[in-house]
Amino acid sequence: MEAREVLEQVKAGKISIEDAEKYFKKQPFEDLGYAKLDTHREIRSGFPEVIYCSGKPDEYLANIYVRLFEQNGEAFGTRASTHQYEVVKEVLPEVTYDTVSHILKAEKPDKKRYGKIAVCTAGTADIPVAEEAAQTAEYFGANVERVYDVGVSGLHRLISRLDVIQEANCVVAVAGMEGALASVLGGLVSRPVIAVPTSVGYGASMHGLSALLTMINSCANGIAVVNIDNGYGAGYIATQINRLGCAEHRKEEKQERDQ
Length: 259
Known about the structure:
single chain, alpha/beta, five-stranded parallel beta sheet, 11 helices
């Protein structure tokens, strides 16, 4: 249970103060020897711990996944392989796997989503990284609008979806090659743009370094840049911005009602 849920159940008389006290006396992490699970992360930051799957031994990954699922009722992993999916599925049948984004997750079915984040790609080859961003944001409770294959070599494609993009609380721009999409979007929207360089491109793209440098040197305002292929990081930050946008909107609505 989350801390708020514990307090609400105490208030409703469903659990005793003593039981609630036991919950809050738990250590802020669970030590498995090979991993220390940050069980209080959601209390501190508003987001539960996420599993980076790549490179983890099978037994460790399976145990970590089960323990986090028991703690939160759901669990989310990035950069997982098909083999790792099979390993986790043996101990947690609820888990699903997306072969495009390589995301491995067991998610609550009744999750409510709010606000809007626009995730845009320059090309179809950028979609795996974009899906990592989009599915991360959705897992953390945001509505996501996908606007794919709208790179600068055919700018009319982007303009045709501009109204949808401009309505979002945050825009994620995923691009390889020269990475120009972020600069274009930065000049067209009033919301923050999170630029994600990808390792898509020919030799001189240097596995995404060219796009990274373009995005860092953008003349457009309001652009922040994450690491190469870091869709998860972009989705996380976009969700934080989306939450702020939704909170401000709710505040304005309340003020209008009170007038």
